[in-house]
Amino acid sequence: MLMTSDRVFVYEVEGLRQTPETEQAVASIRNSTTMIQVPFSRMGDFMQRMNRLGGRIVAIRSSGSEQQDAAPTE
User: Fold this and answer.
1) Is the distance from CB of 12 to CB of 38 less than 8 angstroms?
2) What is the mean pLDDT of residues 9-37?
3) Any long-range contacts for 18-24 (C-beta under 8 Å, 24+ apart)?
4) Domain with 10 in it: what CATH number?
């Protein structure tokens, strides 16, 4: 059993700015998503940071959710 402080979430983020130079580029920059693992205790700080960096959080899921889905059923 995991304690609340041990829980880790996976954020799917898109549109992160790379540098000030790329923001002012004439050509468009490819939008890709990035998967980032964040501990439960840092979720609020992480969401504020993504907002400041111009990223958009597409999805949040518990890192243990894949293990639960893959568990064999009897």
Assistant:
1) no
2) 76
3) none
4) 3.30.1490
CA gap 19, 29 in Å, rounded: 12
Which among 48, 47, 55, 46 has a CA at the least distance from the CA of 15?
A: 55
Among 32, 44, 43, 33, which Cα is nearest to 9's?
43
Judge contact between 62 and 37, C-beta under 8 A. no
Sign of CA dihedral 42, 46, 47, 49: positive
> What mean pLDDT comes out for the span 25-53?
84
Count structural domains, the chain.
1
Q: How does DSSP classify residue 29?
A: P
**pTM of structure:** 0.63
For residue 40, what are the contacts with CB-CB under 8 A and spacing of at least 6? 4, 5, 6, 7, 8, 9
